[in-house]
């Protein structure tokens, strides 16, 4: 829906057809906590005193969840990384909130989209149904290095053929040393050792394919939540509003980086923004400059 030539988001594309897409939207920072805090509070990271990647949302910052809770909404949140947890202030305003509880030895403090969607659904199932408006925030981390394989998604985007094997001066490429993950990835895929800063076209192409697989997987998991909520009478586009955005993009060989999101580059800061639902124009595109902080 944002102009990409591969069919990575078939579900979100349908919502875009029924809503408004902002084609010149930008994130406030290339790092997840900074960027996420901005669109939850409508404040810039510097205004909140953020000075390093694991800074916390200050108590003085009013979040959208707090605003809606004050208006008698029931609020649910679920994140896929521990750096967006309660200890960092990201649960502010949520009646029910979930984030990864333990560190994954290979992936760090993250969990896959299926687990995050399941956690949100589990929280919802535990609570009696209230005759009030609801607010749901789902954060997915899957289209973010290190990329994991998902059957029916990753393999769909695997390109075959011969690629230029000339080494290129591209660095910050995530290689995967764990044998189980390497086997699952079908690696030659990642034949690069940690610390090597030059990569072949083949390696960059395959990283891009895996990234597309992760986007497709996230699209599927998002729709899985929508299906569940619809079945419970909690999601109806004729009544409700859907907002989809991203905290940052990923570099795929540009600017000497690969599978990374360093710097204030166009590829990192230019992010999708989609509104769909009640009262909105259908199939509308906006080319005016917008920001997540808006």
Protein architecture, described:
With 294 residues, this protein is of the alpha/beta class. The chain is built from 7 helices and 11 strands. A 4-stranded mixed sheet has the order 6-9-1-10. The longest helix is centred in the C-terminal third of the chain and has 31 residues, at 201-231. Residues 167-197 have low confidence and may be disordered.
Major sheet description: 4 strands, mixed
Number of strands: 11
Discrete helix count: 7
Overall mean pLDDT stands at: 84
Order of helices and strands: HEEHHEEHEHHEEEHEEE
Envelope shape: globular
The strand order across the widest sheet is 6-9-1-10
Low-confidence stretches: 167-197
Short description:
The protein has helices at residues 10-17, 32-41, 64-70, 113-126, 179-184, 201-231, 266-269; strands spanning 19-22, 25-26, 74-78, 96-98, 134-138, 241-245, 251-252, 258-260, 273-277, 284-286, 290-291. It is α/β, with parallel strands linked by helices and 294 residues long.
Write the layout of secondary structure elements.
Layout lengths: L9 H8 L1 E4 L2 E2 L5 H10 L22 H7 L3 E5 L17 E3 L14 H14 L7 E5 L40 H6 L16 H31 L9 E5 L5 E2 L5 E3 L5 H4 L3 E5 L6 E3 L3 E2 L3
Parallel strand pairs: 1-10, 2-11, 3-4, 3-5
Antiparallel strand pairs: 1-9, 6-9, 7-8
């Amino acid at each position: 829906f944002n102009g990409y030539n591969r069919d990575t988001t078939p579900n979100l594309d349908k919502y875009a057809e029924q809503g408004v897409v902002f084609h010149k939207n930008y994130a406030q920072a290339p790092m997840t906590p900074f960027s996420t805090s901005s669109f939850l509070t409508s404040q810039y990271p510097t205004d909140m005193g953020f000075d390093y990647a694991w800074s916390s949302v200050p108590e003085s910052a009013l979040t959208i969840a707090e605003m809606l809770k004050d208006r008698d909404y029931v609020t649910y949140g679920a994140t896929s990384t521990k750096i967006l947890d309660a200890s960092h202030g990201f649960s502010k305003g949520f009646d029910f909130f979930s984030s990864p509880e333990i560190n994954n030895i290979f992936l760090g403090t993250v969990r896959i989209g299926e687990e995050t969607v399941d956690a949100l659904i589990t929280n919802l199932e535990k609570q009696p149904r209230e005759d009030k408006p609801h607010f749901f925030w789902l954060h997915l981390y899957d289209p973010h290095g290190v990329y994991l394989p998902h059957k029916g998604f990753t393999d769909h985007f695997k390109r075959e053929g011969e690629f230029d094997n000339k080494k290129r001066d591209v660095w910050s490429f995530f290689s995967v040393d764990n044998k189980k993950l390497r086997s699952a990835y079908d690696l030659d895929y990642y034949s690069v050792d940690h610390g090597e800063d030059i990569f072949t076209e083949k390696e960059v192409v395959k990283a891009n394919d895996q990234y597309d697989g992760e986007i497709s997987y996230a699209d599927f998991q998002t729709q899985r939540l929508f299906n569940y909520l619809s079945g419970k009478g909690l999601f109806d586009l004729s009544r409700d509003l859907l907002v989809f955005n991203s905290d940052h993009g990923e570099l795929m060989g540009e600017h000497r980086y690969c599978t990374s999101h360093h710097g204030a580059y166009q590829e990192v800061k230019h992010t999708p923004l989609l509104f769909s639902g009640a009262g909105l124009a259908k199939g509308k595109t906006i080319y005016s400059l917008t920001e997540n902080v808006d």
